[in-house]
């Protein structure tokens, strides 16, 4: 009951701030990169998703709160896009918001894209366009005043040792 009340209050306090949303999207437009991958590659990757992953990443659905496998992960590592593998978040940016979804107060800025979604701002992968979740501001959860509310099924977690091993092998070639 407490968690539902907290979620409802969070949604009320995250009411439309049209000017802030327009500024965020304008910044994103000015910083766009040619990171995109081919539609055929996205279709191949999407065909390998579970129905729940497909619903969230492709159809812009939302997983039920407190059900995501990555919600309580506290290990050191990185979070990547489930669809294309793009690096999105570092574990040191993750925090427990109590809202039922993995929450981050920082992202790898060049690897995400913001899209206006009614009163909210949708967060998508800049490389493949996969739906990740939404971003909310000024809720008071962290000093950064930012909460990326992300669906677990949109992400892969890679622990630090495996990530470092992979990056060492790719940079030494």
Keywords:
173 residues, alpha+beta, three-stranded antiparallel sheet, 30% helix, 24% strand, globular
Strand order of the largest sheet: 3-4-8-7-6-5
| DSSP helical segment count | 5
- The topology string of helices and strands comes to HHHHEEEEEEEEEH
* Average pLDDT figure: 83
| Integer-rounded radius of gyration | 16 Å
Q: Main beta sheet: strand number and arrangement?
A: 6 strands, antiparallel
Query: What is the number of strand segments?
Result: 9
Give the terminus-to-terminus CA distance. 54 Å
Q: Beta fraction of the residues?
A: 15-25%
Please give the share of residues in helix.
Answer: 25-40%
- Which segments are poorly predicted (pLDDT under 50) over 5 or more consecutive residues? 5-16, 29-34
Structural class: alpha+beta
Tell me, briefly, the overall form: globular
């Amino acid at each position: 009951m407490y968690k539902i009340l907290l979620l409802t209050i969070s949604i009320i306090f995250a009411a439309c701030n049209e000017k802030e949303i327009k500024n965020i999207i304008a910044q994103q437009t000015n910083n766009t990169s040619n990171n995109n991958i081919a539609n055929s590659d996205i279709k191949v990757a999407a065909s390998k998703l579970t129905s729940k992953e497909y619903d969230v990443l492709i159809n812009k659905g939302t997983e039920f709160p407190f059900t995501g496998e990555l919600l309580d992960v506290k290990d050191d590592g990185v979070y990547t896009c489930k669809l294309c593998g793009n690096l999105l978040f570092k574990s040191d940016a993750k925090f427990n918001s109590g809202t039922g979804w993995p929450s981050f107060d920082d992202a790898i800025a060049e690897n995400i894209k913001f899209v206006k979604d009614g009163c909210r701002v949708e967060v998508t992968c800049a490389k493949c366009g996969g739906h990740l979740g939404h971003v909310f501001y000024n809720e008071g959860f962290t000093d950064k005043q930012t909460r990326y509310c992300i669906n677990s099924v949109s992400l892969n977690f890679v622990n630090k040792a495996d990530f470092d091993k992979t990056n060492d092998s790719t940079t030494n070639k």
